[in-house]
Amino acid sequence: MMTTIMPEAILMAAEKMSAGGKHPLTAMFGRDETANGVGYVIYCYFEIPENKTVDGFKVVFNPNGSLEYDSITHIIPAAAWYEREIKDMFGLVPKGHPDLRSLVLHETFPEDFYPLRKNVKVNAKVRGERQFKVRTAKGEGLFEVPVGPIHAGIIEPGHFRFSQAGEAMLQLDAKLFYTHRGIEKAVEGKTPYEALPIVERICGACSVSNTWSFCQAVEKAVNVKVPRRAEIIRTLLMELERITNHVGDIGNIPAGVGFNPAISLGGRLKEKLMRLCEAVAGNRFLRGMIIPGGVSMDITPELCDRIHQVMDEVADGVEDMATMFREQENFQNRIQTTGIVRNQTAMDLAMVGVGARASGYSHDSRCDFSYGVYDELDFKPYTKTMGDVAARLLVRIGELSASFEMVDKLIELLNSCGEQELSVAMEYNEGSGWGISESARGSNFQYVALDGDGRIDRLFVRSASYANWPALPIAVQGDIIPDFPLINKSFELCYACIDR
Amino acid sequence: MEYIVTSIGLSLVQGFVLLLIAPLVAGIINKVKARLQKRQGASIFQEYFDICKWWKKATILTPYTGVIFVLAPVVYFMTSFMAATMVPGFLTGQFSMGDAFIFVYILALGRFFMTLSSMDAATSFGGMGGSREIYISVLVEPAVMLAILINSIRYHSTTLSAMVIDYNEAFFTVSAVLACVAFFLVMLAENSRLPVDNPDTHLELTMIHECMTLEYSGKLLSLIHLGSYLKIVVFLALFGALYVPVEIPLALKVLLGAVLIGIVETLNNKMRLFKVRVYLGAAIVLLLLAIIAE
């Protein structure tokens, strides 16, 4: 049970929980519990890797009292975005926060509009004129380069403002959250089953991971154990998704430097994998497989053979690509020492996934938490220490070979497991739970609270990209602006995951 | 008098012939690149369709631009065309219309106007492209001048047609080979090809030549592209006529040069912007060696 504290005690509680940075901040989010007579609540979760769990505290605010609290950003820098989002969504103000601009709600929203408070209707129509000031540097000879929100490629909207001294990037401010979809609000009042298709579509790259985190949270809330065969299938799907995305990403990084043969090879391999996904799930994003209580479909032995075969082909292709990268001196010159994230930065910002592991920060939810059948797979996080584009590329290649092995073992486990029920019936009642799973981008955390009718009262989604976006403006410092696309691609941050 | 009329006439005819085949050569480069990446690729005639498409579209001018913005593509195209009339070896072999210095600085004039126009629309991408173009052209210019110097020392003339390589004399001498390699490197930089600039990219932040054309549309855009295609052909022809010490027809040299560009562009990725000086420095050193060997 989480401890409940008063707003005055938040700094002390946060300091104690983080244990000098040993326990990274997982997430911080608000919830409106005024209907139960509690008030507005901020949940603060920290990872406790030694216990393979998350723990934290909740801060309760009296809706009629002061809605201010002391910002914890200066002791836990990773809290910066969470506090700004809570301010946008619930109107709880972190005093002493270094950057109190709104995060999610742009100019088109009115002031004093807090969408996640319960007194705001789901279909509320509002129009306003907020101020949103993009950060720039001023000085003799400095100039700004605005990029986006509409880009030349087929990508999502995001505005980048570079403050330049010649070709060198002095400062980057990213204005994101352009297509905020209000998913967390939209699923309120829906049953988990109704919410499932929405959660699956938060993002195309992490649909298995998001769904799995959501299902874990729901299963924890109602205390259900998933059949073993379903756990194996879920793990297998997760690794398929990781392989598909990692292959896509390593094929996309060379596009930042116009290294054409590698781009084409990456594209071919990714297409092969997506067709495999279609054969497995009936769609190219592995949607519709994971449901609360288990999985909806089995993976037959014939499909396992097909998976084996495609994995062999893709493993050969990845080997070719790795050789291509190694032998292309000009490419190595571009990726080495470009876009460095130092180890301390990665820890301070509580980065996750490839971004963290490339900076020597061994953070992998597959080891840090116990879910699926990862415990049986004898698996260690793959890390590099340089923190540059090359390190992020190598971490992906290293993880791919680990994932190929895992898929083999998972298919063995699946064959030895025998026929079994694929899912258990779900009885929804009041409760709350969290779920975490490691996608190709990093760990995706979700929190679900169900009300007495078993309907969702609060869903919170902390995607991997949410944790890693703040690292990008730091990584680009000291590099020149033509290197930005390369650095950006090496993180492969997702817009949809934060526009939830 | 008759001599001048004939040579002007022949030069113009040659300019138009090169203009006609220019999009084809660009199409061949793209086809080679596509096939080497195991892609089907667009037809080798695609660039003709593109030019026609842009020509038919409306030209949109932002209200912030001045007369330079409209003038620049015309100047750029005309300078490429004039350079095309000067290339020795096709029709104008025996006439000495083109002087090497005029050739180099006519192309420089076109580049100068493009750089001016890139700043005219006052967009940050344009300015970035302009500054990078100047940075590269400052390095390209001495290299081209040195390359010309080699042949002018060898043949005691600065007239392009007099500098055409003599296959009996310069067949695989040290200086001929060095000059050949160096001029090819310079040609890639001058024509905004990989590894210096990436002609295929959509990433505005990394562009050089394309950055300057971002604000253009319609007829002005098709003029710029036609000018660029023509420039490649001009350089390939010059490369073949002046620096490739192998006795085969010039048209074949242009075709093989285009294939070679396609191969080089597939094998290379774009280098760091500030490494371009090392790349062009290497070309200049090769050229100096060639001059010493001469």
Q: Mind telling me which CATH architecture of the largest domain in chain A this is?
A: Orthogonal Bundle
Task: Indicate the overall shape of chain B.
Answer: globular
Provide the helix percentage of chain A: 25-40%
CATH class of the largest domain in chain A: Mainly Alpha
Q: Strand content of the residues of chain B, in percent?
A: under 5%
Q: Explain this structure to me?
A:
- The complex is a heterodimer of chains A (500) and B (294).
- Chain A has 500 residues and is α+β, with helices and mostly antiparallel strands.
- Chain A folds into 3 domains: 3-130, NADH:ubiquinone oxidoreductase Nqo5 subunit (Beta Polymerase, domain 2, 2-Layer Sandwich), CATH 3.30.460; 134-178, no CATH class; 183-491, Cytochrome-c3 Hydrogenase, chain B (Orthogonal Bundle).
- Chain A has helices at residues 10-18, 80-90, 183-186, 192-200, 207-222, 228-252, 260-281, 301-327, 329-335, 343-348, 353-357, 365-368, 389-417, 464-468, 472-475, 484-491; strands at 3-5, 25-33, 39-48, 53-61, 68-70, 93-95, 143-147, 159-165, 168-175, 290-291, 294-295, 431-438, 443-450, 456-462.
- Helix content of chain A is 38%, strand content 17%.
- The radius of gyration of chain A is 22 Å and the shape is globular.
- The mean pLDDT of chain A is 90.
- Chain B has one domain (2-293).
- In chain B, α5 packs antiparallel against α6 (174-190).
- The longest helix of chain B is centred in the N-terminal third of the chain and has 35 residues, at 2-36.
- Chain B starts with a helix and ends with a helix.
- The interface between A and B is medium-sized, with 30 and 31 residues.
